[in-house]
Amino acid sequence: MDINVAEITKALRRQIEGFEQSVDVAEVGTVVSVGDGIARLHGLEKVMAGELLDLPHGVTGLVLNLEEDSVGAVLFGEVSLIKEGDQARRTRKIASVPVGPGMVGRVVDALGSPVDGKGPIESRELAPVERIAPGVTDRQPVKEPLQTGIKAIDAMIPIGRGQRELIIGDRSTGKTAIAVDTIINQKGTGVICVYVAIGQKKSTISQVVKTLEENGALGHTIIVQASASEPAPLQYLAPYSGCAMGDYFQFHGADGKPASKTNPGGHVLCIYDDLSKQAAAYREISLLLRRPPGREAYPGDVFYLHSRLLERASKLNDDLGGGSLTALPVIETQAGDISTYIPTNVISITDGQIFLESDLFYAGQRPAINVGISVSRVGGSAQVRCMRTVSGTLRLDLAQYRELAAFSQFGSDLDKATQSQLNRGKRLTEVLKQNVFVPMDVALQVASVFSGTKGFLDDLRVEAVLPFEKTLHRYLSSEREALLAEVRTAKKMTKEIEDGLAAAVSEAKKLYLADNPSAKV
Fold this sequence. Notes:
Strand 4 (60-66) and strand 5 (71-76) form a beta hairpin. By secondary structure, the protein is an alpha/beta fold. The longest helix is centred in the C-terminal third of the chain and has 21 residues, at 495-515. Helix 12 packs antiparallel against helix 13 (442-453). Strands 8, 10, 11, 12, 13, 14, 15, 16 and 17 form a 9-stranded mixed sheet that branches. It starts with a helix and ends in a 6-residue tail after the last helix. The model has no long low-confidence stretch (mean pLDDT 93). The chain has helices at residues 5-17, 151-156, 175-185, 202-214, 232-251, 275-288, 302-310, 341-349, 358-362, 385-390, 394-408, 416-431, 442-453, 465-479, 481-489, 495-515; strands spanning 28-35, 38-42, 51-54, 60-66, 71-76, 87-94, 96-99, 107-108, 125-128, 166-169, 191-198, 221-226, 267-273, 314-315, 324-332, 352-356, 375-376. It is built from 16 helices and 17 strands.
């Protein structure tokens, strides 16, 4: 057999030319100990706080503790498969979630993966879950109203776009109902809503999804769920993930490009339901990471946990597109005590609170808002002007009524002025009642409050107030549409509008009493 040197040389040269020297460089650490969803790793000297790690079996780690000789990370996925000695690789990526229009109308988990069975999400962009809140110079004062559709709130505790308003109260007092009503009321306004469910039962979350779907509100809503059955790290992360999804719309125009003076940013409403469960999840993680416990066993930075989330709510200046992100955090109290650690923290971070009381709820006053300690510190300047005028005395009237009602229990001989004040208070309390999931147009709210504060309800029986209100709304919607439009847009309550409202209420009252003569006192 002849050996052809030229052919051998050619083959060798071809092999050498095709050889590529590639070195796989990866920073790798070793799992020193693992348990309770927490891993301690050695050998990742350059890892960043908040960075994601790749572990075997598709498990992801999130770095939270950077110590002198080890790293503490929380694990997502099949944690039971990770054992001592396993390798962990750096990804050089900070925890991020998918964002964009493709997320709207979907139910996702805290990592942005769909859980609603509607297939994959069309989203090419990722955004870090944590971001520094806009600075003072990037903002402008809150000046546009965010209508909840709830009379008691829009009249006395108005919320503006870019505000942070706390919803606080005991279990089962209607906190989630207020949040869901507000989402339903944003239909057709262009506001994108993000509802973050933290530590709730999956059945409760699916009920919220069903309610939104039935009311045609799921089309403008993103639902982020971290249910009670999910590990603490996901419950801790969920509010930040939801906020990142909302941030995208605030900082981008309708065309998907960064917002600017000529390309206005969107408006977003974020609801965190509820942050007391997030604080408990964070306490669990911190104690497992061996961070020192402080008051009520919470870690020392539990205030920062909520402040860095809620500070991201803002109304941007016109140069940045004028977009807004409004936050409605929910806090659950125990036996109405708002002076405990987490409630006082969140009260001091937010721009006001809506306090729901069990006693009022069980007495049939729904929404069960305690007007005395509920307040909105910045929303007044964003309130619809006509509403601001007609509801000016409402809070004072109700406060006086509550005081007189408590006093009158001990005495029967009341003078005429006191009796008339009590009668007015009963009717004002009645007119502020509202059924769940039926948000009301702001102009109709103005008419209802106007009829109460101006004494049109004083000669009606208390039980006839709400039926009369329905007649009033039907009459206004069919006969006085121009007046309603004027109420919505007017810069101030003019004499003409006031006279128009008085005439409309009087006419509706005549129609109602013609059909229900027994309704008169």
